[in-house]
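User: quick one
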Amino acid sequence: MALLEVRDLTVVFERKGEQPFTAVDHVSFEVEPGQTVGLVGESGCGKSVTSLAIMGLLPKRGARVSGTVGYEGTNLLSLSDREMRDRRGRDLGMVFQDPLSSLNPVVPIGVQVTEVLERHRDMSRKKAMVEAADLLDKVGIPDPTRRLSEYPHQLSGGMRQRALIAIALACRPRLLIADEPTTALDVTIQAQILALLKELVRDMGTALVMITHDLGVVAGLCDEVNVLYAGRVVEKAERHELFAAPRHPYTHGLLSSIPRLDAPRGQKLSPIKGSVADNIPWDHGCAFAPRCPNALDVCVQVTPAQEDIGGGRLLRCHNPVRPPVVEEVSA
Ligand SMILES: Nc1ncnc2c1ncn2[C@@H]1O[C@H](COP(=O)(O)OP(=O)(O)OP(=O)(O)O)[C@@H](O)[C@H]1O
Ligand SMILES: [Mg+2]
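Assistant: Done. Structure below.
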C-alpha cells in the first residue's frame, strides 16, 4: 500500500496586480515504502513547489494549495502547523535544494545534527555526537569530528549539501523528499550520495521522492518517473519503459538531448528548441505545443487530457511519439 498518496495537488500563487499563477496543476502520484519515485522536468516546472506543498512549507499568504496529500490515510494538508512540525523530522524528511538557506547559520553543524538525534531518536548527547560523526562520514565529509564544531559558512557548498543530507538521514524518516540533492556535487561524491540513498530505501524501506532534472540520476535510482511540464504531469511510466519508449515529445526531447554511450558514432544531440518562456497556458491547449516537433492544430486549441495508455503508464498528448517497433524474431 502507498505510504504517500498525492491527489490533484494544485498550488496557485496570487500576485498583486497580476493574474494568479498556477505553479502546480493537479499533480497526482503515489509512493510505497521501499520505492523511489522521480519528479523530473526543467527549471521552473514546479518540482520544488510540489515538494514544499507536501511538506507544508509554502508561505501561508499568497499560495493557495488544494488537493490532498495522504500519508497513511491522513491528509497532511488538513493538519495544523504544530502537527506538521511534529511530523517533519519524525516521519517526513526533506533535503532542500538550497543548502545555505536551510541550515542555521549561527549553530554549529554538529549541534544541528545531534539536535535531531536527541529530539527524534531519544539519544543522549554523547551517543548523538558519535552517531553524528558517523553520519557525516557516511555522506563523505572528511574529518567529521572536526567538522562537527564548524559553522555552515566554514563548509564548502558541496559539504553543506552533504551536511543537509546527513541531517535528513539522522531522522530515519519513512518518507524522504530529496530536491536536487546532488546537483551541487562533483560526480564521485554524487555517486556516493546516490548509493547511500539507495541503501536507505533498500534497508530501511524508506519511501523516496527524488526531484531532479538529471536523467542520469533517474536511470540510477528511480523505479517510477513523473515527467512534469509547466506544472502538470505530462508522462508517467516505470523507469525502464520510459527510457526504452518515451511517448511524450517532451520526454523524448529530454532523452535525445543527453549523450548516450550506445548511440551510433557521429550522431548529433538534439536540443529541445525554445524555452519555458514559450509556454502557452494549459487552458488554451498543450503548454508544450510552441516547442513541440509533433504539434498539430489541435494542440493549440484543445488541452490534452491525461490518458491511461496501459502498463501503468499515463500520457497527456494529442500526438505522441510512436513506440519503437519491436522486430519479431522468426523461428
Ligand atoms: N513563493 C513563490 N511565489 C510566487 N511564485 C513562485 C514561488 N515559488 C515558486 N514560484 C514559481 O513557481 C514556478 C515553479 O517553481 P519551482 O521552484 O517549483 O521550480 P523547479 O521545478 O523546482 O525549478 P528548478 O529546477 O529551477 O529548481 C516558477 O515559475 C516559480 O517562479
Ligand atoms: Mg527547484
